[in-house]
Write a structure and sequence with these properties.
The protein has 229 residues and is of the alpha/beta class. Helices cover 26% and strands 30% of the residues.
Length: 229
């Protein structure tokens, strides 16, 4: 599938899959969406000293980068283990054109962005002291076979249900829930009613929150219990 780089309304860039007419991020602002959904309504809500994060999926690497930037500027998070899945990695030319390093004030971010993308797949890499990244090149439905510790925080950043409805249905959501510990947080840009119902059935306490610019609502969900048998 052909991908082209486009500029969103906050000046940050994203990728557009032409055949699907689907962006990797909100056209209203890739950077502000990532910060709002996954930092303000995800990472910054966690009370863990050591946080295990699972992301579906890695995509352009922007969510890793905003998480790393927050880690560097905020001593609340002392250790992060970040696990991310991606079936179709972006190309180096696309990474260069996206130029995400220009969005951050942290002087080391350009080198760190390059390191994030250069990491060998299926290998745990320490990006900076106490921030560990493991990338898995695989289909999301292979998640049940991937070894990882109990997850504290899920970034559910799949393509929208319009183009990939199976990613927002019970089989995948249940696999993700099985990776999460009690009290773990699930956050996503979506507020789809069927997803809220599935998460509740899986033992989550679901909460609607104001969405990022251009989207009225999003949701977070705390794993409160195991699903009823």
């Amino acid at each position: 599938m052909e991908r082209i780089v486009t500029t969103t309304k906050d000046g940050s860039k994203t990728l557009l899959i032409k055949d699907l007419n689907e962006n990797y991020h909100s056209g209203h602002g890739a950077l502000q969406e990532a910060r709002h959904v996954f930092i303000n309504n995800g990472l910054n809500l966690s009370q863990h000293y050591e946080i295990h994060i699972l992301e579906l999926g890695f995509g352009t690497g922007l969510n890793v980068l905003v998480t790393l930037n927050e880690f560097l500027r905020n001593d609340k998070c002392h250790v992060i283990h970040y696990y991310t899945l991606e079936k179709y990695p972006v190309k180096q030319a696309e990474i260069t054109e996206l130029a995400y390093e220009s969005l951050f004030d942290e002087e080391k971010i350009a080198d760190l962005n390059a390191k994030i993308h250069a990491c060998e797949w299926e290998k745990k890499v320490e990006i900076v002291p106490d921030f560990y990244l493991t990338k898995f090149k695989c289909d999301f439905f292979e998640i049940e076979n991937i070894p990882m510790p109990s997850i504290d925080l899920v970034y559910f950043d799949c393509f929208g249900a319009r183009v990939q409805p199976d990613l927002w249905e019970q089989p995948l959501l249940e696999m993700v829930a099985d990776k999460m510990g009690m009290g773990a947080l699930f956050t996503t840009y979506s507020s789809k009613g069927s997803v809220r119902r599935i998460l509740k059935e899986l033992g989550f306490k679901v909460e609607k929150r104001p969405g990022p610019p251009g989207k009225r609502e999003m949701m977070i969900a705390w794993k409160a219990s195991e699903p009823a048998s």
